[in-house]
Amino acid sequence: MNDPVQSPVARKRAPRTPRAKVVAVPAAAPVPPVTVPAAPAVKQKLVRDSFTFPENEYAQIEVLKSRALALAHHAKKSEVLRAGIAALSALPDEALLAALKAVTPLKTGRPKSGKKR
């Protein structure tokens, strides 16, 4: 059996490319964001008023407060009413008129007290 004899041949290496030197660049100091001082909030004048509601609509306020509480927001009665006003204000005229017509009108004025003078 004739085995071919392999001559020892040195492998040729690929020419080395010089590595780039890693230079540490100092990080720029973070610049704090510029905050513009907010104008002092103008305190709105509050108006006290009283309203007459049917019992079922008054109970809806408590239902809405409970829903807000389930959403992790403790809402006051005035917040629920103000949110309703904001929602009505955002409606187009036709939808506002339809919402107003859906509410039955109430007799205006204070209820008579049971006291006699």
Shape field: elongated
Strand content: under 5%
Mean pLDDT: 81
Alpha-beta content class: mainly alpha
* Low-pLDDT residue spans: none
What is the helix fraction of residues, given as a range? 25-40%
* Helix count, DSSP H or I runs of 4 or more residues: 3
Q: Let me know the largest β-sheet.
A: none
Q: What is the CA–CA distance across the termini?
A: 139 Å
Give the tally of β-strands.
Answer: 0
How much is the radius of gyration in Å?
40 Å
Topology pattern, helix = H, strand = E: HHH
Describe the overall structure.
- The chain is an all-alpha fold and 117 residues long.
- The protein has a domain of 48 residues.
- It contains three helices and no strands.
- It is elongated.
- The N and C termini lie far apart (139 Å).
- The model has no long low-confidence stretch (mean pLDDT 81).
What's this entry about, in short?
The chain has 117 residues and is mostly helical. The chain is built from 3 helices and no strands. The radius of gyration is 40 Å and the shape is elongated.
